[in-house]
Amino acid sequence: MKIVFEQTKGLTDIPMRYCPGCGHGVVHRLVAECYEELGVQENTIGVAPVGCSVFADEYLNIDMIQGAHGRGPAIATGIKRNLPDKLAFSYQGDGDLASIGAAETLHAAARSENITIIFINNAIYGMTGGQMAPTTLLGMRSTTSPAGRTVAANGYPIRVCELLAALDGPVYLERTTVDKPAGVVKTRKAIKRAFQYQLEGRGFTLVEILSQCPTDWGMTPLQSLERVRNEMTPYFPLGIYKEPEDDKKARPKKDAVKKES
Amino acid sequence: MPKIDVDVTRCKGCELCIPACPHDVIGLSKTFSANGYYPATMVKSEACTGCKLCAFVCPDVAITVYK
Amino acid sequence: MSERILMKGNEALAEGAVRAGCRFFAGYPITPQNEIPEYMSWRLPETGGTFLQAESEVSAINMLFGAAAVGRRVMTSSSSPGISLKQEGISYCASAELPIFYANIVRGGPGLGNIAPSQGDYFQSTRGGGHGDYRVFVMAPKSVDEMANFPRICYDIAFKYRIPAMVLADGILGQMMEPVTFDFDPVEADSLSIPDWALRGSKPEERRVVKSFDLRPGKMEEWNYRLEKKYDEIKAEEVRYEAINTDGADLILTGYGTSARICETAMAQGRKEGLKIGYIRPITLWPFPTRIFRDLAGKIGKFLVVEMSLGQYVEDVQLSINGRSEIYLHKRPAGGIPTGEEVLEVAKKVLSGDKSKFYV
Fold first, then answer.
1. Is there a contact between C322 and C294 (Cβ–Cβ < 8 Å)?
2. Would you call the peptide bond into C32 cis, given omega within 30 degrees of 0 as the criterion?
3. Could you report the per-residue pLDDT of C63-78, keeping only the tens digit for each?
4. Chain B contacts of A22, Cβ < 8 Å?
5. Which chains have at least 3 CB atom pairs separated by less than 8 Å from chain B?
6. Which CATH code of 3.40.50.360, 3.30.70.20, 3.20.19.10, 3.90.480.20 fits the domain covering B3-66?
7. ipTM of this complex prediction, to 2 decimal places
């Protein structure tokens, strides 16, 4: 009998301290598997954000830097412009990327900065205890929208992939989930593709992963997966929002963006 | 026989692997781990096909799959 | 060494940084420092370096955070409100021990203030500036020549101690033209060794991490003590100042940067008139030249502080003298520029025993 699945060497041996059922662990693993599989682990530099994944440097077995809240794209820019042959990615949550760091995200995308952003969208501020995020759904309760998010008080959630797709800069934008094995496989493929485009020097790539936060959603892990499927994906449709023209032709039609129901 | 090995020092008993398994192989242990969780364990080991789906969704990289 | 050339202060500063090995600049427009990014935008590509106009000061300082982490000699510049925006990033650099170099070409404040020369950012510069317990190395040039040559000293200190280093100047020093001689050979940036802490992509067993925090109990306290040790070393080793005619003086004029020049003029005129006036100018504002003031305290009766702010620099003089001499202050905020005659008038009043207006 042989091992058909084991932990990638892209990760350290330190057990992750995320809450039970949190999506960060899966995405960390996928990121690590991708740089390992592409043979660039020793040539990768990752940027950890402020938020739950502030500890990413303990788990991702590569050179890492932890930066200020929202500034991942700027930090990755500073790294990549000086070490253009390295793989540089920024790992960010929704508050980090779409609220405090919205300008950095938008401008790195507009410059078509040759970096990759791994964007975890769980519609909540996790580390600080469940406050409303820029992607918190209408009606969704948080500690700062205790009666549920309303348009009148808080406006609308931001759809990051759609927003960035309006720019000429991004080369590849895809939204996925990790709520079931098929989604995990697709997310892995998306991250790998983004890294490959960067290694080819094509420009800005971002993978948005809809993820669950059982603790701050006040749900069991299994209930939180239901919310991802039933509430998040209708508002944040899965699929590819931008890709190089030549690859678009080669791609099977089923991966196209599903229209909002 | 294919099987999975759950690292009880990593598993937090989140149960995500349970519905991911197409053959209902996995359940939670009756005893808790040193970390205070009821970790995942094989409850119908004869049905395991080594398909790896449980390992794909595990957020804690706690599952090793043998085939 | 190089020939003597006529340069504008901001451009001399930029060229000085390039010659000192700067190969990455990120900045954002704000008056009166725009000549610096403008100069860098064509000059750095000539050297194989990178110029980036960032979307904000906040982004610019974080681009530096990334670029400094890979061991490059990096620079940003701004003016007062822009430096305020950069403070969070500077605090991160201080904690993560990243060497960066930046310049504040100070304008009038608070708020939007105006674009006139000012020294209103003394506290911000010398007390760390951002959040947390840290210091940055601060140099205050008084001439375009010093604008040209201080960046090299800043890089040397920044890399030796792994701290942020800055030049604190103002619109006068940035905008005026004077002859400049670069007093050092250009640094070959490519020949600089990559520091052993710099990120570069690693084998797992040799991997490097740059971070500004440690949440384990007691560890952040240790972290701060480690930084403090470094700051103590800098205080002991890296103080620079200029002291002229202090022996037997009845009055010491003191100021930094533009104010120092005005003090010099007043001293020269006063001495022509037979007044025993001396002069002290800190070249490093942090570390502050406490000792020279402490040594003269009690021996020289009167110190007249001149600053283009409302009593910021004077506090360091007071702390150094600690009540053992009389301290007077002539202050002009937000675009008020004292003249040599004006300062000499005040000096004469002080020497005559007038305590009505300037005694602090």
1. yes
2. yes
3. 999 999 999 999 999 9
4. 59
5. A
6. 3.30.70.20
7. 0.96
